[in-house]
Amino acid sequence: MEYGPSTLRPSKYSPREAKKRRLLALHRVAGISLAVGLLGLSLTSCELNRRRVLVWHDWPDPQAEVLIELLQGYSELDPSLRLIIEYVPSGELEARFIDEVRSGFGPDVMLGVDADRLADLVAADAVRSISPAQSADHRFDQLEARALQVMAIDGSQQGVPLAGFTDVLYFRDGIEPPSTLHAVIDLAEAGYTTGIPVDFVGAYWGVDAFGGTVFGDDNTLAPDDGFVEWMEWMLEAGPQPNVILGGDYESLRDSFARGRIDLFVGSSGELAQLRSVLSEPPSDGGEPRFGLTTLPGATNEAPGGFLEIEGMVINRHTDHMTEALALLEYLTNVPSQGRIARSGLGRIPINESVAIDPTISPVEAALLRQQRRSVVLPRSFEENLADLTDLGNEIYLQVARGLLPPADAGAVLRARYDELTRVEHD
Amino acid sequence: MTDESSGEQVTVIVDRALVFLSRGEVVEQLVVLLLVLIVSRIMSRALWWTIDLGRKRLPSSARLARLLETGVSSRLLDLVRAGSAPTIGIVLATVTKRELEAAGRVTGLLEELIGVFVVLLAGEIVMTGLTGGLEPAEGRRHRRRFFKPLIAIIVGLMILNHLADLGRLASAPAVEAFGSPLSVGALFVATLGIWFWTDAINLMNTVVVDFVSKHTSFNDGSAEATLLLVRYGLILMGITYGVGQLQLDASTVAAITGGLSVGIGFGMREVLGNFISGSFLLFERSLRPGDIVEMDEQIGTVERLTVRSTTVRTIDNEEIVVPNQRFFTQSFKTFTGTDEKVRFNVVVMANCDNDVEHVRGVLHRVASSHPEILDDPRPDAWVEDGFGNNIVSYRLNMWSASPLAIPRLRSDVVRLVWIAFQDAGIALVFPDMKVHSNASAGEHLWSPSITPHSSTDGANASAPQSNPQDLQVSRATS
Fold first, then answer.
1. How much is the average pLDDT of A357-386?
2. Phi-psi region of A76 (alpha: psi -120 to 50; beta: other; left: phi over 0)
3. CB distance from A28 to chain B under 8 Å?
4. Does A285 contact B at CB distance below 8 Å?
5. Domain B342-477 is of which CATH architecture?
6. Which of A5, A142, A272, B16 has the fewest CB atoms within 10 Å distance of its CB?
7. What is the pTM (predicted TM-score) of this model?
8. pLDDT tens for residues B235-279?
9. Residue in A61, A86, A319 nearest the CB of B23
C-alpha cells in the first residue's frame, strides 16, 4: 500500500492533544456503554410489558403501613399492574403536584388531598374530573353523599373521598363521658378538667349543639339563635375552674397526654398520635388508656363538627385513567374502607355500607356515629375560609373577654364578613 | 417510607421514567425541547461563522478585529461568544413556549429549559469574569474541568428531580464499607463534591494569584505562598467534610488503617517526606514561588511550590521538578532570600603602559551608563593582578537587581568596554597561544602562553573577560 502526500495528511492536533482526545473519546464510549448497560439491566428488571401507575400519598410512618398493605393487596389482584408508591409530606403534597403537572409529570393518582386545596388543584388545571358515568361504573355513588360533594366543584366530580376526620370528645379511662354540655359542667364541678378549643373551626360543633348554623345562602353568613346560645354557654362555662376554653388541638392533646386534663375536644386525626403515647403497654399495639365518644350536645343528641375530607385525585395527564379509577374504586370499597376504619388512625370510612359493631370496636363505632352528624362547610365559603376563620376567632375572643355581648356577636360577624367579601370583590 | 437500596431506587427511577414517557404531553415536550436545543446551537454557530467570515473579508473590520483582540474588548468578545448560544436558546424557548401556550399545550419543561439557559448564561458570565484575565489555555482548562461538569450535574439533577425523590435517593444506601452503609448522597459528596470543591478552590486560587500579580504591589511570591497554604487548608477542610459525610464507623476505620499504616508508611515514605518538607518550606517561607535559586549549577525561578515538589524554570525555559525533600536536606543558593541584588563582574586586561586611573575611570563610566546596573551599591573597578607579562588585569564589579539578567548585562558591559576602550585609545591585549608542532611525527602540541599582543590598531589592552572559561585566545602556529 502506498502512502502519498494525499493519503498521509498531517493531523491538525499535536500528538499530546491527539492522545488526550483519544482518551476522552474512550471515556465517553465507556460512559455511554455503562449507562446503556445499566439502563438495559434496569429495564430488564422493570419488566417493560407491565402497566405502571405512580401513586403519591402523604400518610407518614407508621400510618402508611395500612395504606401500603392495601395497595400491595391491589397489586396482587392485578399482577400486570405495577404500583409505584411514593410518600410526599402533607405540607408539600398539593404544591408539588401542581408544580409537576405543569410539566406533564406528577403521579397518576394522588391520595391524601386536603379537600380545602381541591379548588387550587382545579384552578391549576391539574386534575382530571370524573364523569357521572365513570362514577356510576366504579360505584362511587355508594359513598357518602356529603363527602362526595366536598370533592366536587361546580357540580363536577374532581376527586373521590378516601376518608374523613371530624371532632370528637376524648376522655381518660375511668371517666363516664358527658353526653350533654350540662354534664360537662357537672364533671368540672366534680373535679374533672375538660379542654375545648375556642376557634371558629374547632368550636363550630357548639353552634350545631344548639341546633344552629352560621351559614346562609350564596356565600353570606346568617348566624342564628344557636350561635348566640353557644356563645352564652361558653360565657357561663368559662369561669368554671375545670373548664379550659382555648388552645388548639395540639396543645390540648399534649395536655391530655401528660395527664393535665381529663377530657378534650379534638380532631379524630389525633387518635393515632394519642394511641402511640397513651397505650398499655406503651406502644402502637397496646391497649389505649383512653376512649373517645361523640361530642356533647345541648340535649342528648350529639352535635357535629366540620367534616374534613381526605381525598384522591387523578392527574390530568395520566395515560392510565382506567387503572386509576379502578384503584380509587378499590380503596373506597367496603373491605378497604373497613380496614382503614379499623386501623386506629382516626380516619373515618366514607363508604356508607361499612358497618362497625360497637361492642367489638367502640372507638371506631363512635367515630362513625360522629361522622354521620358532622357538618360540611358549604363550597361557596371555601374561597374565604381563611378570612372567615380569622374573623370568627376574633369574635369568639371578644365575646370571651366580655367586649362583645353574645346577642350581638352574630350580627357583628355577618356585617364584618359581608364587608370583607365586598372589599375583596371590589 | 422504608429504606430502599440504591438498586431499588434505580428501578423506581426507570419505572417513573417509563410512566412519564407513556404520556403524550411529556414526549411532545421532549421533542420540542430537543429541537430548541439543536436549533439554538445551529443558530449560534451560524451567527459566529458569519461574523468571523465578515471579519476576515472586510478590510475595514481589521481595525475592529485588532481592537477586539485586546484587553477588555477581548474579554467582552469571549463573553458574547460564550453567551450567544444560551441567549439564543432563551429567546427561542420563550417564543416557542408562548406559541405552545396559546395552542393550549403543556410547556412546563420549556420553562425549565429557559431556567437551564439562564443558569448557563449566568455561569458563562461568571466564568468569563473569573477566567478572562488568565491565559486562554488555563481558562479553557478550568471551563473543561469545573464549569462544564458543574453545569452538566445541575442539569442532570434537574432532570432527575422529575424522576426521583432526590432526598430519598440521596439517603438510599449504595454500598457497605467498614461495616457502615454508605448512602448515595454521602458518596456523591465524598467524590464529586470533593472534586468540585478542589477545582473551585484551585480556580479561585489561580484567579486571585493572577489578580494580585497584575493589580497589586504585593510581592508575587509571598502572596502565592500564602494562597497556597490557604488553598491546601480549604481543600483539607473539604476532604474532611466529604469523608465525614460517609459516616464510617470510626473504630473499624481506625483498626483497618492502623494495620495498613506500616505498609502505607513504607510505601509512601518518600511522598510523606516530600509532603512534610513542602509544608515546612511553606511555613518557614525559606522558599517561595518567584524565588531565584541555583541548584545543580542551574539557575532558575521557582514557578510552583506544591506539597510534593517544586517546579523551577531555568533561563533556557526548561522546567525542573525537584522533590521538596532535596530543598529541605541539601543546601541550595537563593538569590532572593532577603533581597534580589546580585554582584557580578567582568575581567579586563590592559597593557601596563596604560594609566591605571584612566582605565578605571573608563570602566566606571561604562558601568554607570548602563540603566540596569545599580548605582547603589556603586560599580567599582579593581586592579586585580598586574605586571606579569606586562599585563594589568582589572575586575569591574557591578550590581544587578535581577540575577536572571546577569548573562545579558555581562554581554552588554563587554561590548560597551570594547567600544569605550577604542574611543579612549586604550589598546586591547589579546593573549597569545603558541602551538608547538612536531610535524615529522604528525603530532601537534598546544602550549598556551599568554604574551601581550596588541590589536591591529596598535593598542595594548586585552579583550574583557567575563570569566576564565570565556578567555579569548589568539592562536599562533610555530
1. 86
2. alpha
3. no
4. no
5. 2-Layer Sandwich (3.30)
6. A5
7. 0.68
8. 989 998 988 888 877 777 777 777 777 777 777 777 778 777 877
9. A319
